[in-house]
Every structure is written in C-alpha cells, then in structure tokens.
Specification:
Layout: E1 4-6, H1 10-21, E2 26-28, E3 35-39, H2 43-53, E4 62-64, H3 68-74, E5 75-76, H4 79-88, E6 93-99, E7 113-117, H5 122-131, E8 135-136, H6 151-158, E9 164-166, E10 178-181, E11 189-192, H7 198-205, E12 210-211, E13 242-245, H8 250-255, E14 260-266, E15 277-281, H9 286-301, E16 307-311, H10 319-330
Parallel strand pairs: 1-9, 4-7, 6-10, 11-12, 13-16, 14-15, 14-16
Antiparallel strand pairs: 2-3, 3-8, 4-8, 5-6, 6-7, 10-11
Helix pairs in contact: 1-5
Length: 334
C-alpha cells in the first residue's frame, strides 16, 4: 500500500508522534529538504531508516532537536554552540559535536561525534514537541538520488517502502543544511555548504572557518565512515546522466539533439522558445536558484530526456552549495 500523506492537523501530528514513539518511520518536512524521521534514541528504529533508503552504514544521520535541552540529551555542547544557536537556530545549520552515550552507534556510523540541528519548519517543530524525542532524519529519498523538496517527491521515491508522509508544502530553501564541525571551537570546519556560509559562521564565531575538501566513498562495511551526511563523492543524483558546465551557450545546445535538457543558472537571452532549455532563476537570484534546483531536476528526470546538462552558479553565497550539489550529482552514472 502506498504511503499515506497527512495534512498537518493537530490530530495527525499526535498520531504521527505515536508512530515515532513506537519505533516507526515518518517522512517530515523541513525548511531544507524532506527527511525520513525515526526516534534517534532507538537503534532498531534508526536501522529501519537505513533499510528503507538502502543507505550504507558508513553514512551517519542528522539528529533534529526541538531546543537546547533536547540537544543536551544527545551531544556535548560548548561555547560555540550558544553563539551559533543565538543567530542561526532554529534554521538550516547542523553542528557536529561530541556524542552522548544515549545516541546509538548506528546513528553516528560508529563515530564518537554526532551531527545535530534545530529545524525551523513549524510542523516539524510541533511534531518534535509533541513526541518529546530527538529525531534522526536523513533526506527522505532512495540513497544517492535527488533530495525531495515536496511530499510528492517523497511519495515517488519511498512511497512503497514507508507508511507515513507529513505534508508541509514545498521546502523553503530546497538545499540541505550547512554542516560545521565545532568540536574544537577554535578551529571550526565547514563539512557541507548550505545557505549559511562559512563567512557568516566565521563572523559569529570570531575565528576563520576552514573548508573541508575530502570526500568519502559509499560502499560496504569496513570503509571509512563519513563525519556527517552529504560528504560522499557521489550523491543527489538523477537517474539520467548529468553533465555540468561552467557556462552553457547557444552553440553547445545546437550541437546536441533536442532530446537533451539544459539547466541554465539564469534565463538566457538566446532560448528562442526552445522546449529543452530551463533555468533556476530568471533574474539570477541565488536563493531562488537553490530553492528550485532539486525540484527542477526531479521534473526533468521524469521528462524522458536522454541526458541532462547543468550550468554552475556564481561561486558566492548559496552558489557554493548549489555547485557542491551539482558536482556530486554529476559524479554518479546510471
């Protein structure tokens, strides 16, 4: 039976909180992408996430908390947490901290650290308060594929393997959260870019934020565990091959057939009404482009195109996060 999509009524939130307390799975909306949630303190429930997504065990989960009290159940906070929380939480920022023993090793890929964030989506915040549990929740899609930004995307990808989806509408940001390792507050490391930038973090922390460049391969047991989600070299991938370009031009499109789709960063002047030219933001707005990226890739991946092409965004602000997702998506070949 396909997953049931639930509206965000109080009765439904109470029902879904009960599902989570009993060790079940619920796909939930966040301001970044939809997540597949389970009780973060229940190892068996979290293993169900890995089975439903076909996710490798070396890729840890993010734990979502309602407040700083709940954070202290799962992680060891430091002075940097308080400074960042005042500015960025609730919001699209994930912090890697020392793990507390209450968090089972399956959540953290066996590592002594845990990735934690306080989400801003009002429905997920109400659900967290009602169920009273920290929730582990990676993106609600088959592992390695395009992240879901609507309940319909979740239904398409996981509708036959999970039972419940909470519909919170389209995601506000459409890109996964920024992840920063702050176990050493004097040497924070940006692990995954998002709409909150390294420069913004550095201004709040008062120290430079270093940017990690190493990527981890997904695979069988025994391989190195990632420190946080979203660090794998191949990820966020459509079923059709995706090729990235520094810039898409009319001449490039003309050399290919009309059975290939092209994603420009902004609307080009040379489209001429072509049916295979698309864009992330007509005006070149980085926030709008990030919000539309995964939704557009989902649509084109179902459109019967032989191949997808995408243009990199300007490397500033959210453009760094957009380009990170595009490069990882292009790393996978079907």
């Amino acid at each position: 039976m396909p997953a049931q999509i639930h509206r965000g009524t109080l009765a439904n939130l109470r029902r879904l909180a009960g599902v989570l307390r009993r060790g079940g799975l619920v796909a939930v909306p966040t301001e970044t992408v939809y997540g597949l949630a389970a009780n973060a303190l229940d190892a068996q429930a979290c293993r169900r996430i890995f089975r439903a997504k076909r996710r490798p065990a070396n890729d840890p989960l993010i734990v979502h908390v309602a407040d700083l009290r709940m954070l202290r159940q799962v992680a060891e906070p430091n002075d940097a947490v308080a400074r960042l929380a005042r500015v960025f939480w609730p919001g699209p920022l994930t912090l890697v901290l020392a793990r507390k023993a209450a968090v089972p090793p399956v959540v953290t890929a066996g590592l002594p650290s845990v990735a934690v964030r306080m989400p801003a989506h009002p429905l997920l915040r109400r659900l967290l308060r009602i169920c009273g549990l920290p929730l582990a929740a990676p993106s609600a899609n088959p592992f390695g594929h395009v992240s879901p930004t609507t309940a319909a995307h979740v239904q398409e990808g996981l509708g036959q393997t999970i039972a419940h989806i909470l519909d919170g509408g389209p995601c506000r940001h459409g890109l996964e959260s920024t992840i920063v390792d702050i176990r050493d507050p004097l040497r924070p490391v940006l692990l995954r870019p998002g709409v909150i930038t390294a420069a913004q973090l550095g201004r709040v922390l008062g120290v430079p934020v270093h940017i990690a460049t190493r990527r981890v391969a997904a695979g069988s047991a025994g391989q190195q565990s990632a420190l946080a989600p979203g660090l794998l070299a191949r990820h966020y991938s459509p079923r059709q091959p995706l090729i990235i370009h520094q810039r898409i031009t009319a001449a490039m499109v003309a050399r290919r057939g009309t059975d290939e789709a092209w994603i420009c960063f902004r609307k080009p002047a040379w489209t001429g009404g072509a049916k295979n030219i698309f864009w992330l933001s007509a005006a070149g707005d980085l926030r709008e482009a990030g919000r539309r990226l995964f939704a557009l890739v989902h649509r084109l991946d179902r459109g019967g195109w032989k191949r997808l092409h995408a243009e990199l965004a300007p490397s500033a602000g959210a453009g760094h996060a957009i380009n990170d997702r595009l490069r990882r998506a292009a790393g996978r070949r079907s």
